[in-house]
Amino acid sequence: MIAPENLTEYHKDILKEIGNIGAGNAATALSELVNKSVDMTLPTVKLVPFHEVVQIVGGEETVVAATFFRVAGDAPGNMFLIFTLREAITLLRQLTGDPNIDEESIFHSEIARSALQETGNILAGSYLSSFSDFTGLNLSPSVPFLTVDMAAAVLSYGLMEMSQVSDYAIIIDTQLRETEHSSIDSHFLLLPDPDSFQRIFKSLGVQVNE
User: Fold this and answer.
1) Verdict on whether the full-model pTM lies above 0.90
2) How far is CA 23 from CA 8, 9, 32, 105, 174, in A?
3) What is the pLDDT of residue 207?
4) Fewest C-beta in 10 Å: which of 77, 159, 189, 209?
5) Which residue has the higher pLDDT, 208 or 18?
6) 4 pLDDT more than 60
7) Does 106 reside within a domain?
């Protein structure tokens, strides 16, 4: 298994470039959905131990809205797109133009939840597509599932299942910007199955420590 200390700058540049392409694709797709310009900042890409993931998204008790996918194909794993509840509300207000969307809307409004799920589907799908295009690997997402809960509860299934066979997650952090003064933080998590890191890097001709 690849550990952070074994990653060269070349490995990190590859992950960053995949994140950059995914962010560009996601911004284009989201702009088309809402018929307005949406930009995404250049992402930061990190490979982090599982025990740090929950803290990165705000802590165990932070309420988040997460879209979950199971990735099938040549490099299977689990995938999440995560917004804090506050960021999700801001995003939905921008997408719908409805300033009355609030916390209750996310829990009880089918329209708000569908909009959030479709946004997650577009963003996560764009990142996965960039991974697939860049590596030449066949990767396909499952039907997305939206959940709103504390971060520890949201991530427990994917992390507990994967921690039995792996140690690290790829995290891509970026901001969505509709205007210069309006930005929304998002966290994209890819939790590869045991052999998927090796397959991703080998598909790029990068030597890894076995």
Assistant:
1) no
2) 23, 21, 14, 27, 8
3) 65
4) 209
5) 18
6) no
7) yes
